[in-house]
Amino acid sequence: MNFPAHLDLWSLFGSSFLAATLLPGGSEVVFALLAAENVHSPSLLIGIATLGNTLGGMVTLGMGRLLARRYPMRALEKPAHQRASRWLHKYGPLSLLWSWVPVIGDPLCFVAGWLRLNLLLALAFIAVGKCARYAALWSVTG
After folding, report:
1. For the chain, what is the largest distance between any 2 Cα atoms, rounded to a whole number of angstroms?
2. Number of domains composing the chain
3. Mean per-residue pLDDT for 2-16?
């Protein structure tokens, strides 16, 4: 990327964080570019991307918790939110292993917050899912 090494890592963290919020964006390109440069260790890249993506997922979960105070559950009328709600009621925090999946991951985190799932379990399952995603991405790009 032609940036100092620490700025590369901050770019990865930022793109990973934003990709896990309700804002549009992705971190795969930044991750793949850094993996291809072969400057940083795989564990560092996977760790930074996982940390950013997990924190972004937790922000989305927190937004769900905050909005649940103001709006009743029936306000979740989007099909993605209804699907996420069914998954979370059926499988609980384990559903958050799928929080990395495009289109369904953000609603899963949002509705998990809305349903006030256990924060530590949510954090653990989100982190495991996100880490597995970046490890798989490394195996393809690294």
Report:
1. 49
2. 1
3. 81
What is the distance, to the nearest Å, from the Cα of residue 122 to the centroid of all Cα atoms in its chain? 11
More confident residue, 72 or 83: 83
Q: What is residue 39's DSSP assignment?
A: -
Full DSSP string of 20-31: TSSS---SHHHH
CB count within 10 Å of CB 37 equals 13
Residue carrying structure tokens 């995603």: 133
With contact defined as beta carbons under 8 Å apart, do 19 and 56 qualify?
Answer: yes
Kind and range of the H or E run holding 45: helix 42-70
Domain that holds residue 89: 5-141
Strands (E), the chain: none
Please name which of 108, 101, 45 lies closest in space to residue 80, comparing C-alpha atoms: 108
- What are the tens digits of pLDDT across the range 76-92? 667 776 777 787 888 88
Compute CA distances 37 → 31, 45, 50, 93, whole Å: 10, 11, 19, 36
Please give the span between the terminal C-alpha atoms of the chain, in angstroms, as a whole number.
Answer: 16
